[in-house]
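Field notebook, page 291. I keep forgetting to write these up properly, so this time I am using the form the group agreed on. The chain and the ligand, fe (iii) ion, are recorded exactly as supplied. Prediction of the bound pose follows.
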Amino acid sequence: MFADLHLHTNFSDGTYTPEELVHQAQRHGLCAIALTDHDTVEGCLRTQRACEAVGMEFIAGAELTAEQAGNELHILGYGLDIQHPRLLAETAKFQEVRQNRIREMVGRLNAENVPLSVDAVFALANCRAPGRPHVARALIKAGLCTTLDQAFEKYLKKNRPAWVPKFKISASDAIDLIHDVGGVAVMAHPGLNRTDEVIPGMVEAGLDGIECFHTKHSNSTSEHYLELANRHSLLITGGSDCHGMSKGKPLIGTVRLPYQHVEILKARMARNRTEALSRAHSATPVLLPPN
Ligand code: AMP
Ligand code: ZN
Ligand code: FE
Ligand code: FE
């Protein structure tokens, strides 16, 4: 029994619809998946329904853009209450900033005499959480670039002409938000950042787990983070970070997390949900009878 706890759909920068994603998960024999779109939970309901239809276990999640000590970090939230007003308000903020960032990136492209329109990017993205991969794909569609790599190398990578920094919240605010809405906070793909020095601070802030298994982690990188997880008593998660066809070949199926880790994650989800509910309850003002 295996799971994939890091997946994207076309509600952010993946290319699969929720239904296509679940179909692929089934093809690869997975028994549980989590959806972790960037800065949105909008795809969760459809993914959950598609999972229910085929008897697959589903965990609602998101991948939040955060920073710690000047480093961009991605924090995965699992077991989120996807109707929670605070979660919806906070992700709406992220999405508005992402949309403005697209406008700014296109403005910079135009200043470089690259005639891409904002509408072309939004039409292609067709979601509230657009990102650079959508700009890259729109450039290719308009015949202005030939490959994703070329679009990133020429325009979109950090410090290239159309690069615009991304809005981030602090890692501890991301962890707080996830806890507040009943979820479990996990540091995504630490091997990509290689900023292990930020981990103790995040543990202090309440981090629940580390994504030890990821497509871009070598065996020795995974071993290293398993050891770190052990040392800090953190949960262990893993996923492919599949974006559908947007990065050439679909990654789903390449990282298979043994189901025992999902059981442990689910126990923490239940605990965090109970704690969030009891905090919300104790914060409710008590109405005193009038004198
Ligand atoms: P954004 O959230 O807008 O900053 O975009 C980040 C996304 O762009 C992530 O999914 C990255 O994996 C993807 N990305 C970054 N560099 C490249 C690249 N050279 N080619 C394709 N995708 C990339
Ligand atoms: Zn992405
Ligand atoms: Fe990420
Ligand atoms: Fe991701």
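OBSERVATIONS:
- DSSP finds eleven helices and nine strands in the chain.
- Residues 13, 38, 131-133, 148-149, 152, 166, 247 surround adenosine monophosphate (ligand 1) (CB under 6 Å).
FOLLOW-UP: compare against the apo run.
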